[in-house]
Every structure is written in structure tokens, then in C-alpha cells.
Amino acid sequence: MSSTADYLPAMAEAPILSWESLGLQQGGRWLFGGPDLEDNWSGLDLHIAPRDRLALIGRNGVGKTTLLKLVANRIEADRGTRSVQPGTRIVMLEQEPDLTAFATLMDFALSGDDGPDRHEVDAMADQIGIALDRPASTASGGERRRAALARALAQEPDLLLLDEPTNHLDLAGIEWLEGWLQRYKGAFIVISHDRTFLKRLTRATLWLDRGGLRRKEIGFGGYEVWEEQVYAEEARAAEKLDARLKLEAHWLQRGVTARRKRNQGRLAALHTMRQRRAAMIDPAGAAKLALATDNEVRTKSVIVAEGVTKRYDDRSVIRDFTLRIQRGDRIGVVGANGAGKTTLLKLLTGEIAPDQGEVTLAKTLSGVMIDQQRALMQPERSVRQILAEGGDWIDVRGVRKHVQGYLKDFLFDPGIVDMKVGVLSGGERSRLLLAREFAKASNLLVLDEPTNDLDLETLDLLQEVIADYEGTVLIVSHDRDFLDRTVTVTLGLDGSGDVDIVAGGYEDWKAKRVRRSAPAGKVKAGAPTPPPPKSAKLSYKDQRDFDLLPARIEELDAMIARGEKALGDPDLYTSDPVRFARLNAGLEQVRREKEQAEERWLELAELVEG
Predict the structure, then answer these.
(1) Half-sphere exposure of 225 (CA within 13 A, CB side)
(2) CATH 1.10.287 residue ranges in the chain?
(3) What's this model's pTM, rounded to 2 decimal places?
(4) What number of other Cβ atoms are within 10 A of residue 250's Cβ?
(5) What are the pLDDT digits (tens) for 125-183?
(6) What crossing angle do the helices spanning 118-128 and 171-183 adopt, rounded to 10°?
(7) Is the alpha carbon torsion for 522, 528, 534, 539 positive or negative?
(8) DSSP class of residue 291?
(9) What b/e string do you get for 484-500 counting C-beta neighbours within 10 Å, with b at 16 or more?
(10) Cα 5–8–11 angle (5° rounding)?
(11) What would the CATH number be for the domain defined by 17-221?
């Protein structure tokens, strides 16, 4: 068991890298730092300790990637002093690595003045599923990213800078990366939209907001509480200032806090939908559905797959798959790369035909597909041209809206309407693509990895849009938290051709998969589902644990929530560092106890289920 000292605030250690009074101009304005109202200079201060696990948070376009490049010394600042402990090795994983000078992905992975060892690179590549003998010129964006990840991890740096490391990784790759980073001895800063990834790995948060940088000695799990506290304090301070500042502070507080409250209501509705769908998926529910009249089936069902099999060569990618998708369903598709997710999606949308069985689509089905083809966002075109063909008005699902007002709906400053797409960040371009596609009238929405390159605030917005969408939604995603917040049914593929159909999100599917197939003592999952009937296989002690652990896990969840709330106090570290350290250590101990309780319960569940 770790001691309290293991969880002391990171800044108790001497920093391995520091930036003092950092300032950077971009496009004629100060992106970081700048003069205050009295023309006194104010810059960013950043200190990184040897074992820091830092989440870097901020909306698209605030400069998160730029800040990482400054830390890595890839670009020069206009103001400030950068200092690094001698011998400190810094490696940055970029979103779009440049491979133009390399013949193969392996050449790139071994490059650099102090490049990694080939054996280490091979080991990393094997774990994340990338063949490095592929020519760099023909490699896909995902293959380039995975090669860059293998290169970065194999160097085992003192400071690792990760810009969206989970993009283009499948679920197994993401979980492997989490394990690697948990064992990693150095410091890291990570930019990610993957809430689950951030919650599991980070212990402090850097929040880049409106040109300033705040640091909080708490992992991402406590970030949202902290953010709301900051905005509430700003709103109170603005009451003493002019009307314009009042409006800005009110918008910030309302745009963050109110949205989260609305989404909590949507999550409650989602759980109700899952319960209703679970009743239809079990044998009794399926029998009731089979007895429905043809008219009822035509009215409610939009896609019906019956006994569907699809083969490539001698391999059955999808085998004997049957599902009736109803109007309003939100279907999530998960599985490893190559398991057949895209094939299943194409079957369900009628793009390809099955080798056996039948897929029937409602005649009135009209779909919109939002995939990863960001090429639609031509850099020379303006935002106005992308959204409204150069005009002032856009037709949003039959309702006429002014293009600037519609931009606000998607968290854009209306002033960007005549900016070129090429000057937007990758995340802003993704958000613009969503805005354009969601304007189209449809009753089927197909989303292929929609969360890549989006910031957390935009993910909240996307969750809202999906929840309010009146049609049916198909989502292929590796973002576990996003699936848990949006889908009613999860289709899980393991590469064997079988498709698990589970009412609920990713954690529901994972719990079913783990209980069925993982060896005892090696499983981890979310809170267990209600226990099945008692079994004679269990001893008295085992049966007692099996019955009582679900309630204990709920208690531990509540304790974790209280601990994160207490640590969310922005003044606690300064006013009472001893209490802060004690709370931090206690929170880690409760998290470990919860993990052990979950593992114990799942072991017992395997015995019950035989």
C-alpha cells in the first residue's frame, strides 16, 4: 500500500521544467499573457514536477497544443523564461506527425538524435497494433499516429507530452496505454477528450482559459466542480462591474453549469430508455415484439436485421445477427480495430448486402453520415461558405436561422463567420463539420468516431444534440464515457463474428463480457449489476460477499464523490496543505478499495453464472 507521501501535492517536489511569465503573440494578439488594464505585463507560470500527472484542459482554439509545443521547445515564446533541469528528456506526441522524410513507419519510429531502441519500438508497436514496415507515403492517418505513439513511448522520457493519444486507438489499445502510463515513472501532460482516460490517470489539472493558466492539485475527476466554482466567483465579482461584464459572466456560468444540469436530466431519461429496451431484448420481450402486428412493426421499426451473416474470404465477420432497431434508438458499436464495426454499420445502413439473412430499411429512412473525412473542410473556404453557401441564412432542419446565431449554438464566436477554415484548430474544424451536418433534415444519424478532436465542452453539446434528436442514431466510437452518456443499446464485436447485444452503454457491455470470459482475479469493470439468484456453488462467506458488495460499492462511490468535492476547494491547498494531503491520500485509498471490491464481486459473479 502506498504511503501518504506518495500522494502529496506534486509541487512539493522541485520542478524539472518551469516557464516564468510566458507570453506568446498569435495573429497580432496575445494568445498567452499580455498587459493588464494598467499596462503591467502578466504572463503564464508553469512548473512541472518529476512525477506530475497533468490533464491540460481548455476549449478548442485556446492554445493547448501550442502550449505543449512551447514546453517541448518546438516553438519560441515572445516573453518569459524557460528553465529545464540538466539531463531532462522531453518527448512530445503530436496529433499530425510529419513523415515526409521517411521511407517507412519504422524509419520514422527510430529517428532522432537520440532515437529509441528498435526492440522497444517493436514491443510498443505490437501492443498498439501497428505494422511498422508499411511505407510512410501510403500509411493512413491512424497508422501514422500509432507509429508516433510507439516512437514516443519507446524513448521512456522524463517528461511525456501527449496530444490526444487515444485518437485512432481501439478499446484494447486505449486500456493498454492506460496501464503503461500507470506504470510510467516520469511526468506527463495530456490533452484528451476521453473523460475515462483522464479520470483514471491524472492527479492535477492545468486549465487554459481566456489567455490564463490555472493549476489545481486534483485529477480530472474534480475538474468540473472546480470550473463551476471559478465561474460562480467570476459572476459574483462581475455584479460590481459594468453590464457587459455581467452578461459575459452570466453566459459563462449558464453555458457550463446549466448545460450540465440539463444533461443530468437527459442521462436520467437515457437510463429509463435503457430499461425499456432491456425488456425488449430479453426472450420474453422478443416474443412480445414478434406478436406485434405488421402495422405496428412498420410504424416502430426503422431497421430490421434477421439472421444476417457477412463473410470475407473464409472468415465470417458478422454471423447470424438479428436485431430490430426502433425509431429513437441510440445504437453504439464497439470492438477492436478489424473486428467488423464498419462492416456492421454498412450492413445496417444498406450500403452492402449480407451473404445470408436480410436487412430491411424503412422506406422513409433518410440518413446523414458524419465520419472522419475532415477533407470536406476546405481550408481556403470561409465559415460562411461552409455553412450557408456564402449567404446570411441557413436552413436548420426546416427552420431558417441566421448563420451567426447558428454559430453560437455550436459554441463559436459569431465573429468568425468570414474567417478561413484553414486558420481554425483541428477541433474547431470538427465542430464546424458537426454544425453543417446537423443542419440537414434526416431521421437517421450515423456517427463514425465523432468525438475525435473535440473539446470536452463540445462533447457535452454533442450529447445534448443526440439526446434531442428525434430520429435514430448509430454511433461507432472508442470513447467509453461518451457511449455511456448517449446510447441505449451497445453492439459489441470481438472479431469472432458474434455480436453481443446489450441494453446500456460501454460499461454495461464490458461488465457482461468480463463476467463471461475473463479469468478470475484479472477483471475490472464498473459497478456491478443487481445480483442473480443465489447459487449453491458459493460458500457462506462468498454468498455474503456477493450479496453485500454491490451496496458497499455504492457507498464507496459516494465517498469518492465527497472526497473529490472537498478537494475541489480552490483555497484548500494554500490554506491547509496537511489536510489537502490527507484527503488526497484517503481518496486514493477509497478508489483502491472500490477497485478491489469490484474485482471480488465479478469473480463471484463468474461462479454464479457457471
Answers:
(1) 16
(2) 540-609
(3) 0.71
(4) 15
(5) 888 888 899 899 888 777 888 899 999 999 889 999 999 999 888 888 888 899 899 99
(6) 140
(7) positive
(8) T
(9) bbbbbbbbbbeeebebe
(10) 130
(11) 3.40.50.300
Query: Which CA distances in Å does 609 have to 198, 504, 602?
Result: 33, 20, 10
Say whether 347 sits in a helix, a strand or coil.
helix
Grid cell listed for 401: 436561422
Does the 281-377+424-509 domain belong in CATH 3.40.50.300? yes
Fold assignment, 540-609: Helix Hairpins (1.10.287)
Q: Which residues are registered as beta bridge partners of 159? A: 90, 187
Query: Which ranges in the chain are annotated with CATH 3.40.50.300?
Result: 17-221, 281-377+424-509
Per-residue model confidence as pLDDT tens digits over 26-52: 877 889 987 765 567 788 999 999 999
CA distance 115 to 573: 40
What is the DSSP secondary-structure string of 464-501? HHHHH--SEEEEE---HHHHHHH-SEEEEE-SSS-EEE
* Amino acid in position 515: R
On the question of pLDDT at 360 being above 80, the answer is yes
Q: Determine contact, residues 404/482, Cβ cutoff 8 Å.
A: no
Question: Grid coordinates 506534486 are at which residue?
Answer: 10
Distance (Å, rounded) from C-alpha 437 to C-alpha 465? Answer: 12
- Quote the Cα angle for 159-213-452, to 5°: 65
Residue in the structure block whose three cell numbers are 512525477:
51
Rounded Cα distance between 443 and 473, Å, is: 8
